[in-house]
Every structure is written in C-alpha cells, then in structure tokens.
C-alpha cells in the first residue's frame, strides 16, 4: 500500500501566519495526510506553553533554529539571511522519500520555491491574507513603473489608479505600509518584491479568504496562478469539520489566553461592549495609548482591551495614567494581556471591534458578524481597513489618526449613529462566510480539492522526522 501523502508546512514565524497555517495542518491531518509543521524553536516553545490541546497524531513538528528575532524588522532580515540554507538542510536531513509537497508561506517563497525546484518537490504558496492585498502586492513593480510610488507624506489622499480591478478604491494611504518607504532600495521593500515574485513560481496559491467576499479579484489572480484555493475562514472550517476538537480557539496561539474576560463579558448588556485589540505586533506610543483610552472612556461604552505587555513602546512605559481614566476604566473597562479572541468576538455582549485590521482579526470579525473600527499600522492592514470600510462596508476606517475625539466619534458611529446601515452588510457577509464552510460551500469545496490534489501528486513520502 502507498504511504499516505506527507506535506511540509512552512509559516513565516509570526502569530498571524502560524495560526492559520497550523489550522490548515490540523485539517489536512484530519483528512488522513501526514504533516510536518516547521516552526522556529522560539515559536515551538511558545505554542507548547500556550496551548495544551492534544495535537493530531499525524502532525509532527520540526524546527529551524536561530531564525527568531524579537522585533519584526529584524525577523525579516533573519529570514532573508538565514532561512534558505537551514530549510534545505532540514529537508535533506529528513531522509526517506521526499515529501509530497511543501505548503510555504507566500512571504517565505524565495527559499521554499528554490529548495522545492532543486529537489523536485511541488510547492504551493499560502498567502495568509486577502485576495485584494495579495493582488496589490503583486502590483508593487507596476506601481513604481507608473510613478504611483514612492510618494511624499503630504499627498496621502491622492487616488491610486494602476491596480486593475481596484482603480477606484485606494488612496496612497491605503496601500501596504511598505509603500510609505521613500527609498525603493530599502531591504524590507525589496524583501516583499522578491518574495511576491517568487510566489508566482509556485504550482498553486492558497488564500485565507472566501469566494463570495472577493470573487472578482480571485478571478484576476487566476491569470497568474493556474490553481487557487480560497479556504477561509479556516477557524470556522476547523470547527465545522472537527466537531470534537478539544480546544480550537487557542490551538494556534503563541501567547497564553486569559479567559477571565469571558466572565466579565457575561455581566455586560447585549451587544454593548467594544472589543479592542491591535494584534500581536502593533506598538503604541504612550500618547496614542492615552488618546485611545480617553476616547473609549468618553464614549461611555463598556470596553474590553487587550493590552499586551509590549503594546506600549518600551521607552514610553511610564505609569502615569490620569486618575480619572483609572476610575472610569475600573467602572466599565476590562484589560487583559491576551484574550481568547475568537470566543470574545462570538460573545453576545460584544457589539464592535476596534482593530488594527490584521487579516486574521478581520476574518474572525467577519465570521462573528461584528462590525469594525479600523486603525491599521503595518503590512496589509492599510489595505484591509480600506476594503472593510469602502468595499464591504463592515466598518469605519480611522487610519492615521487616533486623537480622543476621533476615537469617541468612531465608537459612537459604530455602536449607534451608523450602526443600522453597517450591520446590514456585516450580517450579510457573515452569513456568506458561514455558508462557505458548510458542506457544498466554496471554502469547504476548495479544501476538499486541495486535499485531492495533494493526494494525486507524484511522491508519497512518509513522515520520518522525530516527534518533538
Ligand atoms: N489573538 C488572540 N488573542 C488576542 C489578540 C489576538 O488570540 O488577545 C489572535 C487573533 O485571534 C488572530 C491573531 O491573534 O488570529 C492575530 O492575527 P492578525 O492577523 O489579526 O494580526 P497580527 O498579530 O498578525 O498583527
């Protein structure tokens, strides 16, 4: 009998990438495939510390040492410098028949595609973001050729016209944050140009989106990628397909979740709470932190805010929160280090999400039917917030401002003044997301096709690395 297919899954080593790729790993194992999930040592340790959920027996972990860096910019440099030879060594050291295929993060494509080509292993890229932002990153070179980037900081509202299908959507300020780098030779800008270009050499593309949300842009991507699997929202597919999963919501978390906030939510009125989280990487100055806190307090709404220990910039961490804010926060606020976000968003007391527009957070909010206030900082977040507010109409965008009166107004708009209008599209898109993961739904079918396609690939190497 042939050995079952064996897939190597290779995420970029950050929370927003590890989580959806680990969820995909679990789904593939559930379908009978063997998976080796390649982590950094650092993330492997954090995953074990944060989630006690037993892993599927077909899932193995392997790790690449020495890639981790505490700061995201340094992490990009480390991936550029260290990753490819270490990944090649790992694949060689695994011995046995070659893996059936590699599913590599779209921003790890350079090393993955080259090692795959050298060793004859098919590579599928998983860009853990929306079709709209994937399409936008694919146009970085065209944006330069057309003179749309670089630009100066004073003209951020000028429209961007050279991305086909998105001509009337973006202003300069809505492009990925790397487009704000004035120097096009900047290594981080070049990192994205090269990784995106290498991604087009993959045999197929996986996207964490669903067909009905982005059909037109997925169709355009079809001109570059012969096969595309839109399989989002992955956390909903996981719950739909593995109904006895012991702990679906923390299984990809690199930080321990504080569940006490769910009890606090139980004591709040229905749809009254603003949930606030800026994800795993965003940083605030002390001034920004205080403006957000004043805005939330002045809105009069109860709020649950994820204040990571490193949320406020280190040099700004002085404890001088005004007494009036402390009192108001104790009255109607709840602060936690890290929350069980999927469960928070699904809680009946939550009525709105003040988010940094990370793509996982956006997809989770869409599924839960919770409208958003978007305050993007880096990467694709600028694109996501624009799509949320202007394309899908499921939120309001306050990018590049965060004074207390704007925060207060945005909260009032979302929770009261514009709520009826925003909730119509939010409920409709949430229904489409839920339908997509049901049997016969587009994401469910795309995952089935991915599994069938992997099973029909030429190699059938069995897993041979040791279980960590
Ligand atoms: N998350 C969480 N608890 C929190 C905040 C975030 O579990 O308190 C999870 C969230 O559910 C999401 C991920 O962390 O899946 C953050 O990913 P996203 O793409 O939104 O942002 P990033 O961290 O990459 O900026």
Automatic annotation (TrEMBL):
Matching InterPro entries: UDP_glucos_trans, UDP_glycos_trans_CS
UniProt cross-references to Pfam families, sorted A to Z: UDPGT
Highest taxon in the source lineage: Eukaryota
Name under which the protein is recorded: Glycosyltransferase
Entry EC no(s): 2.4.1.-
MF annotations from Gene Ontology: quercetin 3-O-glucosyltransferase activity; quercetin 7-O-glucosyltransferase activity
GO biological process annotation, one example: flavonoid biosynthetic process
Origin organism lineage: Eukaryota, Viridiplantae, Streptophyta, Embryophyta, Tracheophyta
Cross-referenced PROSITE patterns: UDPGT (PS00375)
Family membership noted in the UniProt record: Belongs to the UDP-glycosyltransferase family.
SUPFAM superfamilies reported in the protein's UniProt record: UDP-Glycosyltransferase/glycogen phosphorylase
Coiled coil (UniProt feature): none
Record CDD domains: GT1_Gtf-like (cd03784)
Keywords tagged on the record: Flavonoid biosynthesis, Glycosyltransferase, Transferase
């Amino acid at each position: 009998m042939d050995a079952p297919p064996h897939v190597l899954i290779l995420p970029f080593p950050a929370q927003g990438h590890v989580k959806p790729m680990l969820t995909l790993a679990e789904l593939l194992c559930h379908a009978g495939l063997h998976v080796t999930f390649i982590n950094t040592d650092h993330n492997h340790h954090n995953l074990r510390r944060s989630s006690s959920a037993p892993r599927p027996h077909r899932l193995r972990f392997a790790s690449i040492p020495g890639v981790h860096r505490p700061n995201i910019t340094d992490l990009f440099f480390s991936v550029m410098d260290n990753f490819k030879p270490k990944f090649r060594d790992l694949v060689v050291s695994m011995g046995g028949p070659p893996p059936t295929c590699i599913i590599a993060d779209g921003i790890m494509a350079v090393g993955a595609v080259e090692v795959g080509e050298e060793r004859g292993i098919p590579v599928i890229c998983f860009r853990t973001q929306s079709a709209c932002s994937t399409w936008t990153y694919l146009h970085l070179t065209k944006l330069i050729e057309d003179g749309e980037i670089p630009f100066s900081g004073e003209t951020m509202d000028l429209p961007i016209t050279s991305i086909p299908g998105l001509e009337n959507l973006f202003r300069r300020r809505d492009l990925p944050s790397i487009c704000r780098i004035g120097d096009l030779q900047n290594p981080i800008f070049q990192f994205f140009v090269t990784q995106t270009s290498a991604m087009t050499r993959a045999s197929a593309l996986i996207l964490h989106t669903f067909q009905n949300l982005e059909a037109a842009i997925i169709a355009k991507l079809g001109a570059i990628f012969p096969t595309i699997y839109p399989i989002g929202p992955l956390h909903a597919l996981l719950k739909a397909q593995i109904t006895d999963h012991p702990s679906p919501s923390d299984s990809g978390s690199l930080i321990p979740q504080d569940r006490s906030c769910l009890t606090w939510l139980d004591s709040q009125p229905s749809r009254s709470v603003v949930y606030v989280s800026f994800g795993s990487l965003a940083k605030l100055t002390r001034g920004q932190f205080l403006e957000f806190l004043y805005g939330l307090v002045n809105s009069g709404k109860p709020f649950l805010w994820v204040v990571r220990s490193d949320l406020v910039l280190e040099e700004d961490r002085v404890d001088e929160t005004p007494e009036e804010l402390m009192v108001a926060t104790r009255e109607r606020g709840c602060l936690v280090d890290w929350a069980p976000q999927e469960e928070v968003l699904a809680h009946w007391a939550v009525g709105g999400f003040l988010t940094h527009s990370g793509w996982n957070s956006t997809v989770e909010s869409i599924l839960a039917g919770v409208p958003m206030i978007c305050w993007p900082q880096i990467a694709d977040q600028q694109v996501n917030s624009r799509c949320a507010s202007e394309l899908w109409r499921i939120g309001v965008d306050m990018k590049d401002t965060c004074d207390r009166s704007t925060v207060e107004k945005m909260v009032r708009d979302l929770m009261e003044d514009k709520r009826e209008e925003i909730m119509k599209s939010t409920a409709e898109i949430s229904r489409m997301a839920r339908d997509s993961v049901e049997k016969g739904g587009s994401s469910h079918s795309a995952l089935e096709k991915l599994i069938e396609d992997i099973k029909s690939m030429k190699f059938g190497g069995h897993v041979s690395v040791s279980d960590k």
